[in-house]
Every structure is written in structure tokens, then in C-alpha cells.
Design a protein that fits this description.
Blueprint lengths: L4 H31 L3 E4 L2 E10 L4 E10 L10 H9 L11 E2 L3 E4 L5 E10 H9 L1 H19 L8 E2 L12 E4 L6 E3 L15 E6 L7 E7 L9 E5 L3 E6 L4 E6 L3 E2 L5 E5 L4 E10 L1
Parallel strand pairs: 3-6, 9-16
Antiparallel strand pairs: 1-8, 2-3, 2-7, 4-6, 5-6, 10-11, 11-17, 12-13, 13-14, 15-17, 16-17
Helix pairs in contact: 3-4
């Protein structure tokens, strides 16, 4: 039996091209991380796969809820507190930090095309949700709402957790932000002072006061802070963290809005010693 050497050479070339592609991909991801030190690449672990449909077209949608310790955990919440939260008029006051991946096309068990989204939450929080059906339903609901807000979707609440599948497709790396983008604009640069770390006074304002909110404005009083150089500000989609070094103030709050991190702006007024953070609202 004769072997066609041209076929073998073609297969070898394809294998070499695939290996070269993987090397270039890893190199590119590494360069992205080096060029953007405010973010890092993570590979989350599979968790559970939720099946639902998008309305009104009734197209199949799969949500891969993954887990990673690189995502911060939400504030501690007991089962009793969760019940009260779900029965309250504004359950959106409690936020679960998560990353929402881009949609990707996959093939379901019936060999039909479908859309899948990857959601990553804190690993310990995910494990807790797996032990309690109420927490599991809560994190699925939060994931649905997050995807709806980010991608302007309408997803059915008649979902199903797949028993024998933790992930649809293949687990891909995700780029998550580790530092904030907004730049603190300094009016009068001076030296910073130090004191014992404490929680500063702050006010959250919504503009306009009535109707659909366009901006969330945080005004934070920082007496004793004489320069914005001592401030470290981190703005997440629904979280604000501020530290005044060395150990002067520390503030870590969640707010009931999804905001546009890229276009948020912070300004420190040295005369009034008030930091004003203006954050465009994506959805509430």
C-alpha cells in the first residue's frame, strides 16, 4: 500500500500552523497584559451551565457560570438576609461582582447553532451557591440581569440548570481589570498627610433627581488630604473603592447601578478637600 507523501506533508504543515497560532495567541495575551498593567488574564474554572431562551425570538441561550478566585467575593449575606433582600422593594442594592464575557456561537446537542455567554464569579461564593438552592437561583437571576443590561437582551426566567454539563463550548481566558481607569485631576498639588485609617463621610447623588438616572455622583469628604497623589481610586461596574495613603481613609461601597467605568471622571478639590466622582449610568 502506497502512502501519499503530499497528504502527510499537508497534515504536518497544518499541525505546525496550529502550534504557531497557539504560540502567537499566548504571546499576544502576554503582551496585552504587559502593555495594560491595570488588567490581568485569568482562566476561570467551569461551574454550571444554564439553559434559557432570548425573547421574543425564542432563540436558545446558554449561560456558563464559571468560578475564579481572581474575582472578588460579594459582601457576606446570610440566608435570612437573602430572603429579606428578595422580598424588598429594591433587591438591586446588593451586588455580586462578576465578569460578563462576550457572546460566542456554539452547537447544542441537537447540532443546532446557539449563543453562549460566560459569567465569572468568586469561587468561594459559587461553592456556597451550589450548597443552597436559594443562593443558586439568586446568582442565576443576577447573571441574567447583568447580561440583559450589558447586551440589551431580554432573557426568559424559565431557565434550566443542565445536570451533566458544567460548560458549553470551551473555557477561554478572560481579561479582567485590576485597577481603575479614571484619572484624579488635581487642582492644587501639595503634600499628603497621614493618620489612622477611617471611613470618610460621603454622599451619593443621582442626576437627574427624577426620571431615568444618567449620572451617579459620589462626593467624598477627605479632611486632611492635601494632595490627590495620596489617593488610590478603583471604580468597578457597581463598586467604588477609595484609599487615602498612608492609612488615612478607606472606603469600599457597592451601589445599585451599573456604570460606565471607561468614561467615569474623578476630581479632587484641594480647597474643600472633597473628591467628586462622576459616573455615567448604564442601567439601574
Amino acid at each position: 500500500m502506497m502512502t501519499d507523501s503530499s497528504l502527510l506533508n499537508s497534515e504536518l504543515e497544518l499541525q505546525q500552523q496550529e502550534e504557531l497560532y497557539q504560540q502567537l495567541l499566548l504571546q499576544t495575551m502576554g503582551n496585552m497584559q504587559t502593555e495594560n498593567p491595570d488588567s490581568k488574564v485569568i482562566r476561570p474554572q467551569p461551574g454550571m451551565c444554564v439553559k434559557t431562551v432570548s425573547e421574543p425570538g425564542m432563540q436558545k441561550v446558554f449561560i456558563n457560570i464559571c468560578q475564579s478566585n481572581s474575582v472578588p467575593p460579594p459582601p457576606d449575606l446570610s440566608r435570612e438576609e437573602l430572603v429579606e433582600l428578595l422580598q424588598s422593594e429594591d433587591p438591586s442594592g446588593y451586588r455580586v461582582p462578576m465578569t460578563l464575557g462576550e457572546p460566542h456561537t456554539e452547537i447544542d446537542n441537537n447540532s443546532k447553532g446557539c449563543t453562549a455567554y460566560d459569567v465569572v464569579i468568586n469561587q468561594e461564593f459559587f461553592q456556597m451557591c451550589q450548597k443552597d438552592p436559594l443562593f443558586q437561583q439568586f446568582v442565576i437571576l443576577v447573571s441574567l440581569e447583568g447580561l440583559e443590561h450589558k447586551y440589551n437582551l431580554e432573557l426568559s426566567r424559565d431557565w434550566k440548570v443542565l445536570k451533566n454539563r458544567k460548560f458549553l463550548g470551551s473555557v477561554s481566558e478572560q481579561n479582567i481589570r485590576t485597577k481603575s481607569r479614571p484619572v484624579i485631576q488635581e487642582l492644587q498639588p501639595q503634600q499628603s498627610s497621614s493618620a489612622t485609617a477611617r471611613r470618610p463621610e460621603f454622599t451619593l447623588l443621582v442626576e437627574p433627581p427624577a426620571g431615568v438616572p444618567e449620572y451617579l455622583i459620589a462626593e467624598i469628604k477627605l479632611p486632611g488630604v492635601t494632595s490627590s497623589r495620596s489617593l488610590v481610586l478603583d471604580i468597578g461596574e457597581d463598586r467604588l473603592v477609595l484609599t487615602a495613603r498612608p492609612s488615612l481613609f478607606h472606603l469600599d461601597i457597592f451601589h445599585p447601578f451599573l456604570i460606565d467605568q471607561e468614561n467615569s471622571v474623578a476630581q479632587y478639590n484641594n480647597s474643600t478637600q472633597i473628591l467628586t466622582v462622576t459616573m455615567p449610568v448604564v442601567s439601574s
